[in-house]
Amino acid sequence: MNFDISQVLENWDYQPGQIVVRRFKGRDGTAKVQLRVDLGLLQMNAEGRPDGKLPLGHPSLFEYQQARLKKHLAEHGSDDGFKLGAEDVSKIQLEALQYHHRYICLLELKDYEAVVRDTQRNLAVFDFVARHAESDELSWALQQFRPQLLLIQARARGNEKLDAKRHREAVQEIERAITEVKQFFSEIGRGDAEPTGEVQYLENWINEINTARPLSKREKLEVALNDAVRAENYEKAAEVRDKLRKLPEE
Questions:
Q1: DSSP string, 38-50
Q2: 122, 151 in Cβ contact below 8 A?
Q3: Are 30 and 36 in contact (CB under 8 A)?
Q4: Tens digit of pLDDT for each residue in 171-180?
Q5: In this predicted structure, which of 21-25, 114-118, 213-217 has the lowest mean pLDDT?
Q6: Torsion angle of alpha carbons 148, 124, 99, 183, nearest 10°?
């Protein structure tokens, strides 16, 4: 077996500052994703646990811990006494990082549905660890990445709506993410701080969408009404108002 991948790397240049990624079908028939990095390639499965392993016989370490909790609940009737120690959290965090690498690649590939799938999965992991970690310090090891994750998820949901020409829904998705990021910082005592990079990015994106998107019929009439009033053409203004009143509620 030839382990040298030099030829593969020579035919696929690394581009600093860019996410260079591709999807293909592996020899085992499953979809794979490759990320070109400066020293080589990062390859992962497109579905399931990215490295394809079944830790402790489960699809993921997260699901193994969920099974442990289910057993604990059956034996004790509550989750009291169920704790994740430092080693547990460390292993779960490393697994979550695999999913992070994959959803970054999937976002570049514009597979927005899969990005939402993986980000939702990691959010569930964050919540699980927050509830069961032995200490707040262990919980913070994952929680600190929540704003970044919400940003990536908003980009996927927003772009999915934009591709369908549903601009208003895209803005609603982004606004929802802004609210969730602000709520997170409020809960950790940073609600009065300057807007974070995630919030600034999302707010700027909303401005770009609103500037570039085509106007709805209602918005076009509202512009025409303002123009008519400004020009003191009250007959035209009355005509436009009548058209506005006849439009169905959005």
A1: TTEEEEEESSSST
A2: no
A3: no
A4: 999 999 999 9
A5: 213-217
A6: 0
